[in-house]
Specification:
By secondary structure, the chain is of the alpha/beta class. The chain contains 12 helices and 9 strands. It has 2 domains: 162 residues, Rossmann fold (3-Layer(aba) Sandwich); 118 residues, N-(1-d-carboxylethyl)-l-norvaline Dehydrogenase, domain 2 (Orthogonal Bundle). It has a 6-stranded parallel beta sheet with strand order 3-2-1-4-5-6, with helices on both faces. α1 links the parallel β1 and β2.
C-alpha cells in the first residue's frame, strides 16, 4: 500500500462523501468539511475527522480535494482555507467549474504557492461509491506521486491531459463528455414523454431498438429511473445538471460554437427544477415536458 496521506476533502455532497469514504478505506487520513455540517457527520463513523471550517480541514494536509457546487463556491471556500495552507500542498480541484472558473482557481493556487491539479471526475453516485470514477487530470509531473494515491482511491483509471492544470485541458474534456451525457439524459426523458403523450407503451419502443445500434445501457438506466420510481436519492441531481449545461453553453459561446441542443437542455433542467425536481436525479428532466400538472394519466 502507498504511504498514508492526509487528505482534506472540501465538499461532501453526493460525490465528495463517496470519495472521502474511499480515501479512508484506502488507508489515508481524511479531514472533511461541508458547508452543511450534517452532510459530513456520517463520515466520522467511518474514520474521517469532520472539521468545523475549511481552515481546520486543510491544516497539515498533504493534498486538498475540492468537490463543491461550482467555481465561485470553490473560490470562497479555498480563500477561507488559505490561512491554514502551507506552500507546496497539492490542490486536486474536482469541481466542475467551467473554463473561466478553472482560470480563476489556478490563479488563487499560484497566489498561495499551491500545486494545482485540474482533476474533474466522470461518473455519478454509484461509480463514486464503488471507487470506479474516471479521473481526468492535468498538472505537473513532479507532484504526481502525491496525487496518484488519491486518484487511485477514488477512480478506476486516470486519464492525464497535460502538465499545466491552469490551462484547463481536463475541464475542457469533462465539458465535452458532459455535453453528451446531458444530451442523452434529456433525449431519454423526451422519448418517454412522447410515448406517454401518444399512448405508446415504452416497452414497445425498447423492443424496436433492442440489441441494435440505437440501444444503449445508459438509455435503459435513465428511463428505468423514471419508470420504476428511482429518482431519489439522485445519482446526479437536476439542479447540478442545469449548472453544468450552462457551463457547456458558455464554453461553446466563448470559443465560437453555438450549442443549440445544450441550450435547450439547460432550459429543460431548469424547468424541471422549478417544478420541484431539482434534488432528484437528472432523469427527472422528463417532467419538464408536462408542467405543474404533471404527465396525464
Amino acid at each position: 500500500m502507498t504511504d498514508k496521506l492526509t487528505v482534506s476533502v472540501l465538499g461532501t455532497g453526493i460525490m465528495g462523501a463517496a470519495m472521502a469514504r474511499n480515501l479512508v478505506r484506502a488507508g489515508h487520513e481524511v479531514r472533511a468539511w461541508n458547508r452543511t455540517r450534517a452532510k459530513a457527520e456520517p463520515l466520522a463513523a467511518e474514520g474521517a475527522f469532520v472539521a468545523d471550517s475549511p481552515a481546520e480541514a486543510v491544516r497539515d494536509a498533504d493534498a486538498v480535494l475540492t468537490m463543491l457546487y461550482d467555481g465561485p463556491a470553490t473560490l470562497d471556500v479555498m480563500r477561507a482555507a488559505a490561512p491554514a495552507l502551507r506552500a507546496g500542498v497539492a490542490w486536486v480541484q474536482s469541481t466542475t467549474a467551467g473554463v473561466e472558473g478553472i482560470t480563476e482557481l489556478a490563479a488563487l493556487a499560484r497566489e498561495h504557492g499551491l500545486v494545482f491539479y485540474d482533476a474533474p471526475m466522470l461518473g455519478t453516485r454509484q461509480p463514486a461509491e464503488a471507487g470506479q470514477l474516471t479521473v481526468l487530470a492535468a498538472g505537473p509531473a513532479e507532484g504526481r506521486p502525491v496525487v496518484t494515491p488519491v486518484f487511485d482511491a477514488v477512480g478506476a483509471r486516470t486519464v492525464w491531459t497535460g502538465e499545466d492544470g491552469a490551462a484547463g485541458s481536463a475541464t475542457r474534456l469533462k465539458l465535452v463528455a458532459n455535453s453528451w451525457v446531458l444530451a442523452v439524459t434529456n433525449a431519454a426523458g423526451e422519448v418517454l414523454a412522447l410515448a406517454k403523450a401518444l399512448g405508446v407503451e415504452p416497452e414497445r419502443f425498447f423492443e424496436v431498438i433492442d440489441g441494435g445500434p440505437l440501444d444503449m445501457g445508459y438509455l435503459r438506466a435513465k428511463t428505468g429511473l423514471v419508470l420504476e420510481g428511482g429518482l431519489s436519492p439522485a445519482q446526479f441531481a437536476v439542479g447540478t445538471a442545469a449548472k453544468d449545461a450552462r457551463l457547456i453553453v458558455a464554453a461553446g459561446e466563448r470559443h465560437g460554437a453555438r450549442l443549440d441542443v445544450a441550450e435547450a437542455g439547460a432550459r429543460r433542467f431548469e424547468r424541471a427544477a422549478s417544478l420541484g425536481h431539482g434534488d432528484e436525479d437528472m432523469a427527472a428532466a422528463y417532467f419538464a415536458s408536462f408542467g405543474e400538472e404533471g404527465p396525464h394519466e
